[in-house]
Design brief:
This protein is of the alpha/beta class. It has a single domain (9-267), classed as Rossmann fold (3-Layer(aba) Sandwich), CATH 3.40.50.150. It is 38% helix and 24% strand. It is built from nine helices and eight strands. The chain has helices spanning 9-18, 20-33, 50-59, 72-84, 123-133, 152-160, 182-191, 211-221, 232-246, and strands spanning 40-44, 64-69, 90-94, 108-114, 134-145, 195-208, 250-251, 254-267. Strands 1, 2, 3, 4, 5, 6, 7 and 8 form an eight-stranded mixed beta sheet that branches. Helix 1 (9-18) crosses helix 8 (211-221). It is globular.
């Protein structure tokens, strides 16, 4: 999965507080997957474990819940939660989608990636590994951003970086996120052997009290990779320009940052 070296404890703690949008998407995905008591479930890219613990309650003590994430800081937040309120059917560990070798073949009823796929660089390998660890008939659930419909802040950022004062300064190869569109996701799933049950894109607006709060949310969601392709000496200037444009997105509900989220469910 993507580089998380830019992550830190402050961002991890902030993400745990502000990730309501991701959690709501996850609740929808889990309902689509039909998670039941006694299921063995793998949450890839579990972050601070909020959705993981919700699913653990659904599967009950007869099930097994495993959450993995490449960020040491986010796994630490997740561990703290189960230390404070012991949950016997949950394991949190540092890990990623391209290193599932320690899980046996056909060991999970459900695997899901909630707002994670765009971070995975070697997607074909990840889907092959997920297919291996899923039981025959097991379900895979995915929510992810749509490459063809970037979220508001990303669109604004791209417009700002086209301004003459930033010309030639951006290193496109350093872009940490590698989103897909619906057609690409269909191909990835089918090539890995999955049977697609459902795939669609839904508008997902989120609202913030100020441009600054909106950017803080984005920074926490991106493991500190926001503007990582911009030279350090220009980042504050770029942020100021983005916030100026975000100010124009104010609605009665607050600053609107619209995501277009792909929901996909497939079977092995």
């Amino acid at each position: 999965m993507s580089n998380v070296k830019s992550d830190n404890q402050l961002l991890a703690e902030r993400y745990d507080r502000v990730s309501e949008g991701q959690f709501k998407n996850g609740l929808i995905l889990i309902e689509k997957l039909g998670v039941k008591k006694g299921h063995n479930v793998l949450d890839i890219g579990c972050g601070t474990g909020r959705l993981t613990l919700h699913v653990a309650n659904l599967i009950g003590p007869g099930g097994r819940m495993v959450g993995i994430d490449p960020s040491v800081q986010r796994i630490e937040v997740a561990h703290r939660k189960i230390r404070d309120a012991p949950v016997k059917n949950v394991i949190f560990e540092v890990g990623n989608s391209n290193d599932l070798d320690h899980f046996e073949n056909d060991s999970f009823d459900i695997v899901y990636l909630n707002i994670v796929l765009h971070w995975i660089q070697e997607k074909e390998d990840a889907f092959a590994q997920i297919y291996r660890v899923l039981k025959p008939g097991g379900g895979l659930g995915i929510t992810t951003g749509n490459k063809d419909k970037p979220y508001t802040v990303k669109s604004i950022m791209e417009e700002v970086l086209r301004l003459p004062r930033y010309a030639g300064a951006v290193d496109a190869d350093k872009e940490a996120s590698k989103p897909v569109n619906i057609s690409e996701l269909e191909t990835l799933l089918q090539d890995a052997g999955f049977r697609i049950s459902e795939i669609n894109c839904e508008k997902d607006p989120r609202y913030f009290e100020s441009p600054l709060k909106c950017l803080e949310y984005v920074e926490a969601s991106l493991f500190g990779n926001f503007l990582n392709n911009v030279p350090v000496n220009l980042r504050e200037s770029v942020k100021a320009d983005i916030m100026k444009e975000l100010g124009k997105k104010r609605t009665p509900k607050g600053i609107e940052n619209v995501y277009n989220t792909i929901f996909a469910v497939a079977k092995k």
